[in-house]
C-alpha cells in the first residue's frame, strides 16, 4: 500500500461478450470497488486477448470506412491507426466477424476480403506495421480473401480465379501476383491470436471452430482438407501454434510475407493478451499493485492458455499480488492464485459488475485485515 494506506488496485478485465465491453467492465468494476474502498488508487486498464475489441486497446485515431462483411455484403468497419508508430490495429472481426452473418453463416463461402480492404486503406495512410487481432472471425479461408484484396489471386489448374471461401481451397493450384499491392503486402505483420490451435487436424481451425461458424460435419471435412492443401501448396507448417486462428488466416499472410521478403522474419504470430498487457504497461503496474482485478464471461480451462486471466496471473505471481477474477460462470477448477467472484443473476449488466466490484473489495478488505 501507499504511505496513506490507500491500496493500489489495477482493474484489467476482458470484455463480457453480449454484456459489456472491456472498457465498460473496467469502469463498472472500478465503481463498485470505489464504493467500498473510497481512497483506493484505482487504475483502469481494459484488456483484450486478440479477440474482438483488441484494436481499441491501443492508442491512435479510429478510422471508419466502407468495406464488405464475410458474406460479401457492403458494410462499415473501423480500425485504429497510430501515426506515431505507423501501426494499424485491426480486428479481423470488425469486417469479417461472425455477428454480421449470424443470421446466415457462410462457413464454405465466407472470406476475409473486407479485412483486406482495411489493410490496404491503412497502408495508404502510412502504416508500415499491420497488427491483426484474429479472434471472432466468421471465415475459414486461410487468409485468401485478404490476398485477393491485396491483388494476389488464387487460380485453379486451368488458370481461372477460384471462387471465394474455404470450401474451394482444394482447387487452388497457384496464386497470381501480377496485380499485387506490393507496399501493403510488404508490411510488417503482427498476428495476435486468442487461441493456439494448429491449422488442421482434430484441434484445427475447421474441427474446433467450424461448427460455431455454421459448418456441418461434411463441411468440416471439406474445410480441413482445403486448409491442408493450402498449407502444402504454400509450404506453411500447419502444426504451428496459432496458425488455426481466424480460420487459418496466418497461412496466407505467412506465404505473402515470405514471397516479398524471402523468409518469415516480417510476420509474427503471437498470443494476444501478453502483447496488449505490455502496451498498457501492465507488467510495471502489476509490480506496484496491491490487488489485480480481472475477469471474463466464462472461466474455464482455456482461461490460462494465453487468455487475459492467465496473463494477469502470470504477471502477478512473481510479485505475490492477489488476483481477483469476476466471472460470469466457472467451468472446471479455479486457476491457482485466483480468487473468483461469480457475477450475480441481475439482468442489468452494470448492476452485475458493480456488485462484483463491491464483493471483491470487501473480500480484499477482509483478507488484508486477517493477514495484517
From TrEMBL:
Keywords of this entry: Kinase, Transferase
One Pfam family from the record: Gly_kinase
Entry's Gene Ontology molecular function annotations: kinase activity
Chain segments annotated as coiled-coil in the UniProt record: none
InterPro entries the record matches: Glyc_kinase_flavodox-like_fold, Glycerate_kinase, Glycerate_kinase_RE-like, Glycerate_kinase_sf
Family: Belongs to the glycerate kinase type-1 family.
Name listed for the protein in its UniProt record: Glycerate kinase
Annotated organism of origin: Corynebacterium mastitidis
Amino acid at each position: 500500500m501507499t504511505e496513506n494506506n490507500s491500496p493500489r488496485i489495477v482493474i484489467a478485465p476482458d470484455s463480457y461478450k453480449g454484456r459489456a465491453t472491456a472498457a465498460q467492465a473496467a469502469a463498472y468494476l472500478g465503481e463498485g470497488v470505489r464504493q467500498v474502498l473510497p481512497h483506493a488508487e484505482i487504475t483502469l486498464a481494459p484488456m483484450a486477448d486478440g479477440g474482438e475489441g483488441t484494436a481499441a486497446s491501443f492508442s491512435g485515431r479510429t478510422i471508419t470506412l466502407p468495406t464488405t462483411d464475410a458474406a460479401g455484403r457492403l458494410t462499415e468497419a473501423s480500425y485504429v491507426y497510430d501515426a506515431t508508430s505507423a501501426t494499424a490495429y485491426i480486428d479481423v472481426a470488425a469486417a469479417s466477424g461472425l455477428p454480421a452473418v449470424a443470421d446466415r453463416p457462410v462457413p464454405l463461402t465466407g472470406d476475409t476480403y473486407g479485412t483486406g480492404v482495411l489493410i490496404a486503406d491503412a497502408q495508404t495512410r502510412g502504416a508500415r506495421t499491420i497488427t491483426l487481432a484474429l479472434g471472432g472471425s466468421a471465415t475459414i479461408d486461410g487468409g485468401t480473401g485478404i490476398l485477393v484484396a491485396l491483388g494476389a489471386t488464387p487460380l485453379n489448374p486451368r488458370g481461372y480465379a477460384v471462387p471465394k471461401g474455404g470450401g474451394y481451397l482444394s482447387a487452388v493450384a497457384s496464386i497470381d501476383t501480377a496485380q499485387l499491392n506490393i507496399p501493403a503486402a510488404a508490411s510488417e505483420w503482427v498476428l495476435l491470436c486468442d487461441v493456439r490451435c494448429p491449422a488442421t487436424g482434430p484441434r484445427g481451425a475447421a474441427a474446433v471452430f467450424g461448427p460455431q461458424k455454421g459448418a456441418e460435419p461434411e463441411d468440416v471435412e471439406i474445410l480441413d482438407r482445403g486448409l491442408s492443401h493450402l498449407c502444402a501448396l504454400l509450404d506453411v507448417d500447419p502444426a504451428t501454434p496459432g496458425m488455426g486462428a481466424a480460420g487459418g488466416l496466418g497461412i496466407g499472410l505467412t506465404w505473402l510475407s515470405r514471397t516479398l521478403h524471402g523468409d518469415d522474419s516480417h510476420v509474427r504470430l503471437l498470443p494476444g493478451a501478453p502483447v496488449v498487457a505490455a502496451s498498457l504497461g501492465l507488467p510495471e503496474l502489476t509490480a506496484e499493485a496491491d490487488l489485480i482485478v480481472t475477469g471474463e464471461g466464462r472461466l474455464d480451462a482455456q482461461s490460462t492458455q494465453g487468455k487475459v486471466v492467465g496473463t494477469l496471473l502470470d504477471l502477478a505471481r512473481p510479485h505475490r499480488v492477489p488476483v481477483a477474477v469476476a466471472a460470469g460462470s466457472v467451468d472446471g477448477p479455479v486457476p491457482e492464485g485466483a480468487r473468483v467472484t461469480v457475477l450475480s443473476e441481475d439482468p442489468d449488466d452494470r448492476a452485475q459488475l458493480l456488485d462484483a466490484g463491491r464483493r471483491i473489495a470487501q473480500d480484499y478488505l477482509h483478507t488484508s485485515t486477517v493477514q495484517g
